[in-house]
């Protein structure tokens, strides 16, 4: 095995970039570490500290306990350790309050640029704490075609752009088959911050982000929506059906008061992991093309 010490700076940078693109987020130690044992030892140490008797320290002034103490000299005061700074606890915003704040921020925006600014300032979604970047809509808002995915993945989060990396490459191939490119459409996601480990967003996280994606649709005013993936279809259609049950069917939905026909199909990740899905996606794309070409 090649040691990291044998690699040049440029080779190390290329290796780290490769791991980041592959989705690696944690590096392993050379020797295994039992984190559970460390945690138990830490708990035992804290318990011992709490159980230890408190011993009154002798007063350096020599005055009896309980009597007023003379003011310490300036020299003595300087020798005393500084009092620890008070730590302010992190205050969790209740879900309902976070949804209300998101709705207010979204409705206050009068353009996509204002909406992006509002989302950058929003702190009510816990996903923002672990994500690198806000992944906002990208592309041509005047095209009348909006493509919505579920959430940013690792490459999207790194670049701050929807459908980056291999998912973007696959989407480009999907669009080119019907005469489109990513510059011809507006790309976005239901959730604008990447969930840790690319997990599916929770129901509450989706509820908090709903005002933002609905406001994006209302401001962009697309004539057609293409929804990618199981999560996205369920989010907008409000059903528990799988993507294979909803794909290829035009449905009308309302987002922020804007009525728009929407068609669901498979996400590029579905085509990467199971190439057999390409034939289903191709059928859906032909259906989408027939609608946008009149």
Automatic annotation (TrEMBL):
SMART domains according to UniProt: UDG, UreE_C
Keyword DNA repair: yes
Reactions catalysed, as given in the entry: Hydrolyzes single-stranded DNA or mismatched double-stranded DNA and polynucleotides, releasing free uracil
Gene Ontology MF term list: 4 iron, 4 sulfur cluster binding; metal ion binding; uracil DNA N-glycosylase activity
InterPro entries reported for this sequence: UDG_Type-4/5 (IPR051536), Ura-DNA_glyco_family4 (IPR005273), Uracil-DNA_glycosylase-like (IPR005122), Uracil-DNA_glycosylase-like_sf (IPR036895)
GO biological process: DNA repair
SUPFAM superfamilies documented for this protein: Uracil-DNA glycosylase-like
Positions of the UniProt region annotated as Disordered: 46-73
Record-listed E.C. numbers: 3.2.2.27
Keywords, ordered alphabetically: 4Fe-4S, DNA damage, DNA repair, Hydrolase, Iron, Iron-sulfur, Metal-binding
Superkingdom of origin: Bacteria
Domain Uracil-DNA glycosylase-like: 136-286
Matches recorded under PANTHER family: TYPE-4 URACIL-DNA GLYCOSYLASE, TYPE-5 URACIL-DNA GLYCOSYLASE
Family: Belongs to the uracil-DNA glycosylase (UDG) superfamily. Type 4 (UDGa) family.
Name of the molecule in the record: Type-4 uracil-DNA glycosylase
């Amino acid at each position: 095995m090649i040691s990291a010490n044998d690699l040049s700076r440029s080779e190390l940078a290329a290796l780290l970039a490769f791991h980041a693109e592959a989705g690696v987020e944690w590096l392993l130690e050379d020797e295994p570490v039992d984190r559970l044992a460390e945690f138990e030892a830490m708990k035992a140490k804290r318990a011992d500290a709490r159980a230890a008797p408190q011993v009154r320290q002798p007063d350096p002034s020599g005055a009896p306990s309980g009597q007023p103490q003379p003011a310490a000299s300036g020299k003595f005061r300087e020798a005393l350790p500084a009092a620890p700074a008070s730590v302010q606890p992190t205050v969790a915003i209740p879900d309902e309050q976070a949804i209300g704040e998101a709705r207010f921020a979204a409705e206050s925006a009068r353009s996509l640029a204002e909406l992006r600014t509002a989302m950058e300032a929003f702190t009510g979604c816990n996903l923002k704490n672990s994500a690198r970047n806000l992944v906002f809509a990208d592309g041509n808002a005047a095209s009348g075609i909006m493509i919505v995915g579920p959430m940013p993945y690792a490459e999207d989060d790194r670049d701050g752009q929807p459908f980056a990396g291999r998912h973007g490459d696959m989407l480009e191939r999907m669009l080119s088959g019907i005469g489109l490119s990513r510059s011809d459409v507006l790309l976005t996601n239901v959730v604008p911050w990447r969930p840790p480990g690319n997990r599916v967003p929770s129901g509450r996280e989706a509820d908090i982000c709903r005002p933002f994606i609905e406001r994006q649709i209302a401001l962009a005013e697309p004539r057609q929506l293409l929804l990618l993936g199981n999560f996205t279809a369920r989010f907008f259609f409000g059903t528990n059906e799988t993507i294979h049950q909803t794909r290829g069917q035009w449905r009308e939905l309302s987002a922020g008061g804007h009525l728009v026909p929407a068609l669901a199909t498979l996400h590029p990740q579905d085509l990467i992991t199971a190439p057999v899905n390409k034939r289903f996606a191709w059928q859906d794309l032909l259906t989408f093309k027939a609608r946008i070409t009149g």
